[in-house]
Design goal:
heterodimer, A: mainly alpha, MetI-like fold, four-stranded antiparallel sheet, 68% helix, B: 439 residues, alpha/beta, D-Maltodextrin-Binding Protein, domain 2, 2 domains, six-stranded mixed sheet, 18 helices, 9 strands
């Protein structure tokens, strides 16, 4: 870091020296003044957009989380006489609400399962594409195709796949073929109900709590739609793996699995970080695919934080909960910023 | 790079551009619209209407709108359709953004919430005339009442629930010559079907409103109309002995007669399930009559498929009828109140409801709509069940009535009940959620 600072200071000095000499004439001074303003003129519009569409809504959300309000009587900065200040009670209510922790648990399942599945699916596919002697472009296109579909459409497609009627749902048709239609199994604390994909596919009884698996079957369509991003990122990363390194490893007698483990994966670390962090961010803000497949149900088995927030603002009109929703949004944002830090750091490092 | 010329030329171009934009904006904001509504006189101009029907029901509503346009040719009606489940959120967003539709479909729970915020047009005058003319009664008016001591909605579409739909071929095979007259007769018939190894009922509980359609008629049947309406209005709790008994009866029905995949099945699959013979029956509303054709267009209503009502749980008295339906509200801040009011009045009129009734799968809430307009025997029979006089015992859809957060909790609790059939747990959940009777 010190070396970089010194280098950059030296560069500035080099650039600044002729400018100072040229500042002797009035024309040069005007040019110099313009040169100082010009960058701000270029950056200004995007800063205005950022301030208007990102910064202000964020600050407004933080401020509104300290008040009681609903969509039909929203919190407004310019109407202090109508403010119903409640301090941090929206945060304490949220953090002590069973609904919040249920949604947080479901979001946590997304946060863990979704990135793991995306990595587990997209990395081998990228390796296959990379190793394909012919048609790698076609394979890449096939794997990327689901990405071109909106998540809502992906959810609807998979709702058909999960349809309980074997004449309509592919999975239940397969279960019927193998004689497992409507079959139920119990393995100790684990219950499995074949064919009830989105309603009651299985439960893990953990004494104090039951973990239901409906979430998993909402996550799978999202992985199907999102894995293409991993494939693109990894195939791009794979092209930059030094061939000399691979050749050297092969000469040393490394097997294919050893090549992947000791050469490819270490070289792909930045790509893995990108895919993992983007998947985590995607998982935390997931909403649309849950809405179209289960709408958070059955009961609240698949309700994630973004959906709880949406319900509180738009569905519970009789009990204005906009402040609670804002509190959830703030908590989610804080969490997301913390999770994104490695990605931001990696990006900054790359830029340096 | 595009060369804009010298500095002076650049400044002149910029000033000219700004002047053009400013002039354009000023012209746009100041010019009067071509369809500016008149404050009085005959209705004219544009109105925007939000509906949530799809398929045959959307086509029927379009036909009603055409009827309005024929009566008021100077009014242009733009209909926007939203998915049923999104109605409340879309309407809320539009009201909150200050750009509500002039008129919109709504359910009683939502009518009361919007009215509480003073957002709805008061239609007392229209109702006064209707009640005076005998087109509606005070019980129906109470359903459309807001929270502001005014009637804030009109009744557009009626429905009766608790109808047990079946094909005549299936019941003939079961040896049913007449509908079951008592509860034991019903369960005997269901047990007979169940012995074949298939659940008697087709149930689309993936659509969260479907279990609510079951709860209402059972509550009315077992607990009675008085307890039902007290429960709806928060005057008694869910732990009331009669209510608890009804919940237990419902949970037994789920355990004994529902398919395992009820929570994976949606309403359309429910209908096609009994129509195509996968299951024998479905318990749902009168509107099903208009949807059967989408599963099997060859079936003739009344002859090939029909319904019976749930028999009394105890004794022989006919249970109170479960009813529901859709209301329409007008926005208080409508830019065209004259046309909006005319539209609302038209929707509740005999003319408008006759158009829809002729298409089937619909019950006209307006009591002056003659039964002769209903196209099929099933529609006529269902319309007969509509409570036409104040003495008729009826209970309005509990789920639609309560609305808001409690409605959401009620639906979730019902899903849990479907899954666990644990009536006691359901009562505990609802007792904790619905605290209105606690005082």
């Amino acid at each position: 870091m010190t070396v970089t600072k010194k280098e950059s200071m030296t560069t500035t000095e080099k650039v600044a020296a002729p400018t100072l000499k040229a500042a002797r004439t009035p024309g040069t001074r005007r040019r110099q003044g313009r040169a100082k303003i010009t960058p701000y003129l270029f950056v200004g519009p995007i800063l205005l957009v950022f301030a208007g569409f990102y910064l202000w809504p964020a600050l407004s959300t933080i401020a509104s989380s300290l008040f009681t309000w609903g969509m039909l009587n929203p919190w407004e900065l310019g109407a202090p006489s109508e403010w119903d200040y409640v301090g941090l009670s929206n945060y304490s209510s949220t953090l002590s609400s069973a609904d919040f922790w249920n949604a947080a648990l479901n979001s946590a399942i997304w946060l863990i399962v979704f990135p793991v599945l995306v990595l587990a699916v997209s990395f081998p596919l990228a390796l296959l594409v990379w190793n394909a002697r012919r048609g790698s472009g076609i394979f890449r296109s096939i794997f990327i195709l689901p990405m071109t579909i909106s998540l809502s459409a992906a959810g609807i497609i998979w709702s058909f796949i999960y349809n309980p009627d074997p004449n309509k749902g592919v999975l239940n048709a397969l279960l019927r073929v193998v004689g497992l239609e409507d079959a139920s199994f119990t393995f100790g604390p684990l219950e499995v109900h074949a064919g009830q994909w989105l309603s009651n596919p299985g439960i893990l009884h953990l004494g104090m709590a039951d973990v239901r698996f409906a979430n998993l079957f909402v996550i799978i369509p999202a992985v199907w739609a999102f894995a293409g991003f991993g494939v693109i990122t990894f195939t791009a990363g794979l092209t930059s793996v030094p061939s000399e390194l691979l050749d050297a490893a092969r000469v040393d007698g490394a097997k294919q699995s050893q090549l992947v483990r000791h050469v490819v994966i270490p070289s792909l670390r930045p790509s893995i970080v990108v895919v993992a962090v983007v998947s985590v961010i995607f998982a935390l803000r997931t909403f649309d695919i849950v809405l179209v497949t289960t709408a958070g149900g059955p009961a609240k088995d698949t309700e994630v934080l973004a959906m709880l927030l949406w319900r509180q603002v738009f569905q519970y009109l009789d009990t204005p909960q906009g402040g609670l929703a804002a509190a959830i949004a703030v908590l989610m944002s804080v969490f997301m910023i913390i999770i994104s830090l490695p990605y931001i750091r990696a990006t900054l490092k790359e830029q340096q | 790079m595009i060369n804009l010329g010298t500095g002076q030329a650049k400044r002149r171009s910029a000033i000219a551009l700004l002047a053009t934009v400013a002039l354009g904006l000023a012209t746009t904001s100041c010019s009067p619209g071509n369809d500016a509504p008149k404050a009085d006189g005959p209705p004219s101009g544009d109105i925007r209407v939000l509906s949530n029907w799809s398929g045959p029901e959307a086509e029927a509503f379009d036909a009603v709108v055409k009827g309005f346009s024929a009566k008021y040719p100077d009014v242009s009606v733009k209909v926007e359709s939203v998915p049923f489940d999104q109605t409340q959120s879309v309407l809320t967003q539009q009201f909150a953004a200050g750009s509500p539709p002039d008129a919109a479909v709504a359910l009683p729970g939502m009518v009361r919430q919007l009215s509480q915020q003073g957002l709805l047009m008061d239609v007392d005058g229209i109702w006064d005339t209707w009640v005076k003319n005998g087109e509606y009664n005070d019980s129906l008016r109470a359903i459309a009442a807001g929270s502001d001591n005014h009637t804030d909605a009109v009744y557009v579409k009626g429905n009766v629930n608790g109808l047990i739909w079946h094909t005549t071929a299936r019941t003939k095979a079961l040896g049913m010559s007449a509908p079951p007259a008592t509860w034991p007769e019903l369960t005997t018939m269901l047990d007979k079907y169940k012995a074949s190894g298939v659940a008697p009922f087709s149930v689309g509980a993936k659509d969260v409103w479907v279990p609510t359609q079951w709860m209402d008629p059972i509550l009315l049947n077992v607990a009675g109309e008085e307890k039902f309406n007290k429960l709806a209005r928060g005057e008694i709790g869910w732990d009331d002995a009669d209510v608890a008994k009804a919940v237990t009866v419902f949970s037994t029905m789920i355990r004994d007669y529902w398919p395992k995949n009820a929570l994976d099945t949606g309403f359309s699959d429910e209908t096609c399930g009994w129509v195509k013979g996968k299951n024998a029956f479905a318990n749902n509303g009168a509107f099903v009559n208009g949807i059967v054709a989408s599963c099997d267009p060859s079936l003739r209503p009344g002859t090939d498929y029909t319904f019976f009502t749930l028999p009394p749980f105890e004794g022989t008295d006919k249970p109170a009828q479960a009813v529901s339906g859709d209301l329409f509200v007008g926005a208080k801040e409508s830019k065209n109140p004259v046309a909006t009011r005319a539209f609302l009045e038209y929707l509740g009129s005999v003319d408008a409801q006759t158009i829809w009734a002729k298409r089937g799968g619909y019950i006209a809430p307006n009591m002056k709509v003659p039964s002769s307009v209903y196209p099929t025997a099933n529609d006529k029979a269902a319309a007969e069940l509509w409570p036409k006089d104040a003495a008729s015992q009826a209970g309005y859809d509990l789920d639609d009535w309560i609305g808001g957060e409690l409605q959401s909790k009620y639906r979730n609790a019902l899903v849990e009940l479907v899954r666990s059939q644990d009536a006691a747990a359901f009562i505990d959940t609802m007792k904790a959620a619905d605290t209105r009777s606690n005082g």
